Amino acid sequence: MKMHSVFLVAIFFCLACTELVNGQPRNDCQTSCGNVTIEYPFGTSQGCYYADDPSFSLTCNETDQKLLFGNIEVINMSPSGELRVWKNISYACYNSTGNLTDYSYHTTTLGNLSLSRKNEFTIVGCNAYAYLSTFGTQNYSTGCISACDSPPAENGGCNGAGCCSTDVSVPLGSREYRTRPARLASMTSVYDFNPCIYAFLTENSTFHFDALEDLKNLRNVNKFPLVLDWSIGHQTCEQVGNRSICGLNNSTCFNSTRGTGYNCKCLEGFEGNPYLSNEHGCQDINECTTNSTIYKHNCSDPSTCRNKVGGFDCKCKSGYRLDTTNMSCKRKDFGWATILLGTIIGFLSLLLLISCVQQRMKQRKTAELRQKFFQQNGGGMLVQRLSGPGTPNANVKIFTEEGMKTSTNGYDQSRILGQGGQGTVYKGILPDNSIVAIKKARLGDNSQVEQFINEVLVLSQINHRNVVKLLGCCLETEVPLLVYEFINSGTLFDHLHGSLFGPSLTWEQRLRIAVEIAGTLAYLHSSASIPIIHRDVKTANILLDENLTAKVADFGASRLIPMDKEQLTTMVQGTIGYLDPEYYHTGLLNEKSDVYSFGVVVMELLTGQKALCFERPQQSKHLVNYIASAMKENRLHEVIDEKVINEKNWKEIEEAVRVAMECTRVTGEERPLMKEVAAKLEGLTVTKAKHQWSDQYPGEVTENLVGVGILSEQGDTSSTGYDSIKNVASMHVAAGR
Ligand SMILES: *[C@@H]1O[C@H](CO)[C@@H](O)[C@H](O)[C@H]1NC(C)=O
Ligand SMILES: *[C@@H]1O[C@H](CO)[C@@H](O)[C@H](O)[C@H]1NC(C)=O
Ligand SMILES: *[C@@H]1O[C@H](CO)[C@@H](O)[C@H](O)[C@H]1NC(C)=O
Ligand SMILES: *[C@@H]1O[C@H](CO)[C@@H](O)[C@H](O)[C@H]1NC(C)=O
Ligand SMILES: *[C@@H]1O[C@H](CO)[C@@H](O)[C@H](O)[C@H]1NC(C)=O
Ligand SMILES: *[C@@H]1O[C@H](CO)[C@@H](O)[C@H](O)[C@H]1NC(C)=O
Ligand SMILES: *[C@@H]1O[C@H](CO)[C@@H](O)[C@H](O)[C@H]1NC(C)=O
Ligand SMILES: *[C@@H]1O[C@H](CO)[C@@H](O)[C@H](O)[C@H]1NC(C)=O
Ligand SMILES: *[C@@H]1O[C@H](CO)[C@@H](O)[C@H](O)[C@H]1NC(C)=O
Ligand SMILES: *[C@@H]1O[C@H](CO)[C@@H](O)[C@H](O)[C@H]1NC(C)=O
Ligand SMILES: *[C@@H]1O[C@H](CO)[C@@H](O)[C@H](O)[C@H]1NC(C)=O
Ligand SMILES: *[C@H]1O[C@@H](CO)[C@H](O)[C@@H](O)[C@@H]1NC(C)=O
């Protein structure tokens, strides 16, 4: 039995313990008494008020439904640290002779609570005074005097006539006070209207003086609200730190106004009892739905309220925008400036769009055009042929138009190496920094595409040291571009007739060059897989590299001869002065046309004279005729370039002249094969003059003069334009007009 009760007591203490650790009240605490709500930290029973501190202990008289703090009736309590109570007034009453007949003076003790400075001390009466004394760590006294012989005419004013009131700067922590009113001596005349003198402490501005009534009898009012201050503990917020009972629960600590301890308050946007951490603690205020005028949102009509923790947002309805200066919603109005701006932006966007589309279309068109040209120029065929069988050695690179443009710096003027009837030759620098010559190919009409592609393929397969190598082509341009290896030391024409290249060529060099060209043409005519006719052999088409090695260039006019055909009927192409007269007249092309042209080149090498020269006498304008007539008149010495003649080489020169004459015979059939010419010239360099052909010489000298016919037909009429070979380097003559 005894054990049992001990056990129960232990349980009780343990419960109390846990309660106290949290600093929170029990769940079953009385929450109101009469009309008064009891709020924590106050409570009416143990475990319901804070920390079992009797300072917060209240009692509720259930019979008359009054909540009492000691013996003082409580009006209400606020979490900010105020307890409002009713306090009886002090009074002193006199009879007509001025003797004190009745009085009530109070000495009020406030326990651990203290007098608030919100109270004011008021005295009501005529010719009266009263004093207030407070006691605490510091004692304090103040008083007020009211003088009047008759009731004051005006109500309300508590300014020394019938009523006197004063703010009290009571020392903080005053826990006891006394009020005592008294009549000034022998002032009996006021008895009729003011038998009693009243003095009381009351909350600032709760008393409104009614002169007649209040002077006569204030005891029927009797009580006034008094404000008391309370706080938790004796430490400041800093001192108590996280041990305060605020903080955990959406509330914050503040120093008590009474100078000791602290109080709690809800964070902004929260509402509730800041000392509680249960559902009665600080909870978010829904400003959007609350009935409280203090917390109600101020979002005005066009905006709608949106609650959030600790506050709310005013969201403008659609069609409105938030004006941040006064946080109100304004109808979205579009001023002229906005409209103008919008229009301009719209317009610009449109322009941009259009230009973009145009750009795209242009790009597409360019791409289409490139593709069209590519097909037109036989690109498809080339690709097919390259990938197919039969062209194992073909090494044709297909360049893009873009790449060509880049490598020539956009076909820049400074990159032009030469310009002529064959088109323009550009110096190009490929991405791998190799230098190439880029040349526009000549392509008559679409029917020749296959021919052209054939040529590209064949030429690309020629790997001869004396042929300018074709590296590739670009077919995406209207006029196909051919890419050749770059030979840097100019043309034979420049070396012979220009003064650009230092000392003139020696006989040995000239002979070697002639041998190289002859060998190359012989190779092209017979050795190459399909015979190739150059068709435009001339000194301007012989390039020299830095070692003065001849490189035959410009196969722009060249034609392949299919194996089964000995002769081709083509449009006559070539250069006046070098053009085979037979071919010119018949339009029948065969390899002997190249032999003729080569003969003229040899003559040029021998004489240092141009193939055509209008400064020479009429009959000798053409180099072939010039030499022929010199030969006939036995004055060969005069026409041979004196720079090459020496005592030892005259035989060779004569031999070379003979070869050239053979080559330039009017009838193609009578001309030797290129192979034979090459052998002959080579023989000259090795064996120094064996006159194998001398018996045939001088053959058809007169027939050699036929070339003049071409001249008189065209050359004379166009002599004004004949400044340099380059300008009219090639003349296209339609044979069968
Ligand atoms: C409670 O308040 C009502 C209305 O304000 C009042 O009529 C009633 O007398 C009050 N009761 C007590 C005990 O003060
Ligand atoms: C005043 O507070 C102290 C502790 O804070 C307490 O012990 C004491 O009983 C209180 N006095 C009254 C009259 O409540
Ligand atoms: C409650 O108040 C009544 C009337 O004022 C009084 O008679 C009674 O003793 C009081 N009760 C307590 C417990 O103080
Ligand atoms: C206050 O006055 C009322 C009547 O006016 C009286 O019943 C009560 O006892 C008084 N209280 C005190 C503490 O004097
Ligand atoms: C006033 O009070 C005094 C003393 O109590 C008394 O002697 C006197 O008669 C009273 N005067 C009147 C007019 O009642
Ligand atoms: C008393 O109230 C008046 C007006 O309400 C105010 O100006 C004054 O500061 C208050 N005094 C105190 C001590 O609160
Ligand atoms: C205040 O007054 C009381 C009572 O008259 C007295 O005992 C106390 O010593 C005084 N305190 C101070 C600080 O003067
Ligand atoms: C209070 O703060 C101290 C140090 O500032 C810390 O060690 C302790 O854990 C904190 N207590 C709580 C309940 O947050
Ligand atoms: C703090 O406020 C939030 C939001 O209202 C709420 O959910 C939470 O319960 C509150 N905390 C306490 C201890 O009251
Ligand atoms: C509380 O009071 C102390 C000392 O007077 C002061 O240092 C501190 O800043 C105050 N804290 C707050 C929150 O007012
Ligand atoms: C607000 O007031 C209305 C009626 O006045 C009531 O029905 C509603 O419950 C109240 N809401 C709150 C949150 O107090
Ligand atoms: C009123 O009472 C009489 C008799 O008791 C006294 O003699 C007076 O002195 C007294 N008057 C005052 C002002 O106290």
Bound molecules: 2-acetamido-2-deoxy-beta-D-glucopyranose
Question: Roughly how many Å is the radius of gyration?
Answer: 64 Å
Average pLDDT, all residues:
80
Which class of secondary structure composition applies to the elements?
alpha+beta
Q: How much strand content do the residues show?
A: 15-25%
What's the domain count?
Answer: 5
Task: Give the distance, in angstroms, between the N- and C-terminal Cα atoms.
Answer: 147 Å
What would you give as the CATH superfamily of the largest domain? Transferase(Phosphotransferase) domain 1
Count the helices. How many?
17
Instruction: Give the overall shape.
Output: rod-shaped
Polypeptide structure, described:
With 737 residues, this protein is an alpha+beta fold. It folds into 5 domains: 18-78 and 233-271, no CATH class; 82-229, no CATH class; 285-333, Laminin, CATH 2.10.25; 379-485, 2-Layer Sandwich (Phosphorylase Kinase, domain 1), CATH 3.30.200; 492-734, Transferase(Phosphotransferase) domain 1 (Transferase(Phosphotransferase), domain 1). It is built from 17 helices and 37 strands. It has a 6-stranded antiparallel sheet with strand order 3-4-5-6-17-10, with no helix packed on it. It is rod-shaped, with a radius of gyration of 64 Å. The structure holds 2-acetamido-2-deoxy-beta-D-glucopyranose (12 copies). One 2-acetamido-2-deoxy-beta-D-glucopyranose (NAG) binds next to loops.
